[in-house]
Amino acid sequence: MNRFRRFFGLQMSRIRKFVRLRWSEKILFCESVMLHLLVGVLLKVVPFRKIPVLFAGRQFETPTLEEDQPRHMVSGRQSVDQYRYDLSGQELILIGNIKVAVQRAGAVSPWRNKCLVSSLAGRVMLNRREIHSTISLGVTKRHDGKTIAHAWLIAPGCELVEKRDVYTELYTF
């Protein structure tokens, strides 16, 4: 009985948090949850080699290179804004709101590979709003010898799915 009360209390807490969100945040969260579910199913059905083709980013705007050179590394990791885009304040706020929605949906996602699912769902959300983004896939080895894979999503001025560690980047699309 105590376990049931704890579970029920946790679910009610989540519902209360959802009810307190602004309408625009609720819409983004629902969109992100649906995309997380759809992407997770797609990853189970479609061969992985076809995923980059399905989720290929579209170039919506021409990047403005600072000093005609991309910034490659900032303190050992790829710069978040490798290319500088002319985005309005509204678009930057929207990117931040999408980041929060993707994080919230990732927290309730049933899939094991949450970083890849979140990155692909975030890419779809950004593509719908004609905002360029980059998904990177990488690996690292832990101290115990186990290889860990990770996916992260970068949009202008923001890491929607964070890199969080030092990974050897294998593929970018």
What is the 3D shape?
A: globular
Strand count, sense and barrel status of the largest sheet are: 4 strands, antiparallel
| Euclidean distance between termini CA atoms | 49 Å
What's the number of helices? 5
Strand content: 15-25%
Number of strands: 6
What are its keywords?
single chain, about 170 residues, alpha+beta, 4-stranded antiparallel sheet, globular
Structure in words:
The structure is a single chain. The chain is an alpha+beta fold. The protein has one domain. Helices cover 47% and strands 17% of the residues. It is built from 5 helices and 6 strands. It has a 4-stranded antiparallel β-sheet. Helix 4 packs antiparallel against helix 5. The protein starts with a helix and ends with a strand. About 13% of the residues have low confidence.
Write the layout of secondary structure elements.
Elements lengths: L1 H19 L2 H23 L5 H4 L18 E2 L2 E2 L10 H20 L5 H15 L5 E8 L5 E9 L2 E4 L6 E5 L1
Antiparallel strand pairs: 1-2, 3-4, 3-6, 4-5
Helix pairs in contact: 2-4, 2-5, 4-5
